[in-house]
Design goal:
single chain, mainly alpha
Length: 117
């Protein structure tokens, strides 16, 4: 039973990591493409919207990567692995929190009426 679970998890971990990387990379490509189009003056784009979508994708990608780290540690939980996992989760949680805070600020700035001059 344990060996079968280990084999299953060892196949799942790269898939979960790939999902996290894919979530981030697809949005990076899309954002870069839209920014270049706007930079060349072919079509206007709101930078706030680009930043919000990119930030949301990074948050989702980080969630996938944390899940993969948890699954990896479940395979061979030595104390060093557990400490490394705790440090990775702490860093990614802080990054995730800061990104979500930035997204809330961007969202509230986008939703609030512009100051008239």
């Amino acid at each position: 039973m344990t060996e079968g679970l280990t084999v299953i998890i060892s196949f799942i971990v790269p898939l979960v990591e790939a999902c996290g990387a894919l979530a981030i990379m697809l949005e990076v490509i899309r954002t870069t493409f839209q920014y270049v189009i706007a930079f060349l003056g072919l079509r206007p784009v709101q930078l706030t919207a680009l930043r919000m979508r990119l930030g949301q994708s990074v948050v989702i990608g980080l969630e996938f990567l944390v899940a993969a780290d948890i699954l990896k540690t479940a395979l061979a939980p030595t104390w060093n692995d557990i400490l490394l996992l705790a440090a990775l989760i702490a860093l990614r949680t802080i990054l995730n929190y800061l990104l979500e805070h930035e997204l809330k600020v961007l969202h509230s700035n986008a939703a609030s009426p512009k100051d008239e001059q």
